[in-house]
Design a protein that fits this description.
By secondary structure, the chain is mainly alpha-helical. It contains six helices and four strands. The strands form two sheets. Strands 1-4 form a two-stranded antiparallel sheet. It has a two-stranded antiparallel ribbon with strand order 2-3. Helix 3 (37-43) crosses helix 6 (133-144) and helix 5 (104-113) packs across helix 6. The radius of gyration is 15 Å and the shape is globular. Mean pLDDT is 83; it is low at 15-28.
Length: 146
């Protein structure tokens, strides 16, 4: 059962995406190669269960597509950083923390627990995904082209 808080959040997210004019619809219809689990998760063709920090209510599936907030191009026109090879692999200061870079383990920690490689907590708007190790690894390979 979806709570009124979750419903309000979903409605706000929809409005924010529309106001920011994020071009997620083009990516949502992106065709993924058969068996490309990372692409399917990123684009929302494969559902990814998630919830927000401090709230264990599941989010509606349409709100948990990576492409809703992230792009795979630099610079990102949205409010979330781009999920590109350069952004993830280059050492850089993120949210006031020391320079850090992502690797597969740090990426999965960020996706699942909302903590970046420098142990800085991500924004509360970043969902905590319930992905298996295989799903997270596939997503990492997709966004870094590895």
């Amino acid at each position: 059962m979806i709570t009124s808080t979750t419903s309000r959040l979903a409605a706000r997210l929809t409005v924010c995406l529309a106001l920011l004019n994020i071009p997620y619809l083009a990516y949502a219809d992106q065709s993924c190669a058969p068996g490309d689990m990372g692409c399917a998760i990123f684009s929302g063709q494969r559902a990814a269960a998630a919830h927000l920090r401090d709230d264990n209510q599941p989010l509606p599936e349409w709100t948990t597509r990576c492409v809703n907030c992230h792009t795979r191009t630099d610079p990102s026109p949205g409010f979330a950083p781009p999920l590109t090879r350069g952004y993830l692999l280059d050492a850089r200061s993120r949210r006031g923390g020391p320079p850090s870079r992502y690797d597969p383990v740090a990426f999965c920690r960020a996706v699942k627990d909302g903590i970046d490689p420098a142990s800085v907590v991500l924004r509360k708007s970043m969902p905590h995904f319930e992905l298996s190790s295989a799903e997270c690894t596939a997503l990492w390979r997709f966004v870094t082209n590895q």
